User: What shape does this take?
Amino acid sequence: MTKKIVVIVILFIFSFNVGLAQQTFVQPLQEAYIKYSQLSWQTYEFYVVSTLPDHEGLNYEWTIDNKDIYLSEKVRYFFDKGEHVIKLKVEDQYGNVRYDTVRLNIQFWSLKNNWFWWVLYTIIILIIVYYWIAKLVYLFNRRKVSREARYFLDLLDEHGWVERLVKDYIKTKIVKKQKSKKAKKQ
Assistant: This one.
């Protein structure tokens, strides 16, 4: 019985020593640089690309505009309009240090400017709504509108769809009134 316990203990110790011998040697850091992607108009995501495949044992220090410091592998940041400097310092477990710097110029008139697009869409929708309201008011008060306004509003509705809808609406109201008058007479 004691022989079995001794053999188990020896196997356990031997397997532990073999496990230590099989530890992989981590290469020292040779190169690290900044990659970034634009998430929205002024929001960017920065991350590190290095010669080490899994980024284990690396310490990161991001400095944005010499005032904000982050210590993570990835950084998301919302920038104001203007020029900005992003600095990266990467250090491995052996003390090797690599630096990289990126300059960004954030401009207002960008295709990824969400506020710009929302304002533009809102203006377009308001113009369309205003036109249709004016068109409906015009159709109900056609005789009171000037000749130039009639020409302009008829030009924008060349197929006459709105005019037909209004005429059908007016006809149904007239028919309902006539039916109610006939019902009252009888």
